[in-house]
Amino acid sequence: MLIELQDVTHIYDQEQNVKALDDINLEIDEHEFIGIVGHTGSGKTTLVQMFNSLIKPTSGTIYVDGIKTTEKKANLKHVRQTVGLVFQYPEHQLFEETIYDDVAFGPRNLNLGKEEVDKRVKVALDLVGLDFDEFKERSPFNLSGGQQRRVAIAGVLAMRPRVLILDEPSAGLDPQGREKLKALLKRLHQSYNITIILISHRMEEITQLSSRVIVMDHGKIVLNGSPREVFSHKEKLEKLSLELPEITEILFRLRERGCDIRTDIFTVEEAVDEIIKVIGSKENVN
Amino acid sequence: MSLLEVKNVEFKYHGQQEPALKDINLEVEQGDFVSIIGANGSGKSTLAKLLNVLLRPDQGNIIVEGLNTRNKEKIWDIRKNVGMVFQNPDNQIVATMVEDDVAFGLENIAIPSNEIRKRVDHALDLVDLTGYETHETHKLSGGQKQRLAIAGIIAMEPSCIVLDEPTAMLDPQGRKEVIDTIKFLNKEKNITIILITHFMEEASISDKVYVMNEGKIQSQGPPSEVFEQIDYLRSINLDVPVVMEVANGLKKKGIDIPDILTIDGLVDALC
Hints:
The complex is a heterodimer of chains A (286) and B (271). By secondary structure, chain A is α/β, with parallel strands linked by helices.
């Protein structure tokens, strides 16, 4: 088990007793791709900040890579190297004069030799699709928003985390930017065996990438399963004012009109084929 | 005379080789709901800044209610007529209490206090924030903050409101709140709206769409016509709604359905 939470509760405002996390029990295995959804204020961000011990819970126990992080003398340095966290709008945290220095900031703090730092910066920039020689000397502040975000992600990747958490990484990106990000996450997961935990409001992203989906509401995990399982709970999700993936919505609506159609499909191509299969055969009958 | 007219406008940022806007022409009438869509860098925000004289055109003219934005003496009259709402909800709020924030612009132009009270209450009512008068602004959600920003603009009684990607930083709930508010203001209160967005779903509720790419208006018309060109829109890096992709996929495979903009439309066409 890579990450384990036992009876974790977190209270931000002691006076008002607002539970940001309410008795969470959760296990995450190596090499999972987990999507976390929930409306604003449901506890998603607080939950992932527990994973790399950025905040400690009010009560409960957390293990990360065998280390009990809720203990006072826990080796948090190891935990933070294992679990990399990309915040919302991470480009706001760029600060160095050159892209090289920004990405190298973390590795240098690990006291790695110059050659190793060099290598890590190269690999990280290559992963996010930025050419090392073209970009290393440039200022991160003269890049487009999408490029800045990729530099920020490269800074986390240069730490070689085994788990990568991303909080709304596609917010504000245009369609091309989002496609590039999706391809990067797929590659990190499949070719580099990195465990990925993705928070997103974009249901399409969640269904196309995740092997497991966690739905949060009022600090609790209310659904936890494969995308097919989770998005079959249409009414429950609507009650939580969460949107269904648009494709799922279309298929459910057709089903309500009496079409005998599958609703567990998440790509446009498959949906088109399924609709033709069902509508086409109906027309033949008529 | 149109409410707002943009004629042959060109604009170049200092130090840039290429103009950010080339040969822009558009007209907006009182009560119109116009949207301008385009990818990042297409020039749509630059156009917005020209409309309320944050920038002035290098060539061509922009006429707002008969006033040319080149006329430096009329700059404040024009800005009063063209209210702007920006992307980041946190950058537009100046006061710590909701009603003070709405009153800020009015106090600056020395409106009498009983009139301010009336306008503030009316504006908060229109954006559905009645009851929040004495709430602290920093505790509002993103969608509420944007609606508050809209209320501050409405209180100034401009002849049109320009919204520059007002939902880009909001969650789905907040987006819905803001879009519903904009729709209500236009359809029920006849307020002229110019909505700049890269979400085609949002543009689909307007009366007329202008598509911008590389500093030019490349296409214009009612949403149903403009959004037919799905492959073109995708090629200029716009978000094509999933429902239109599905409809397009069905058409390509020989299913005969009309132009589709909404899930309701698709479901009706199929069943």
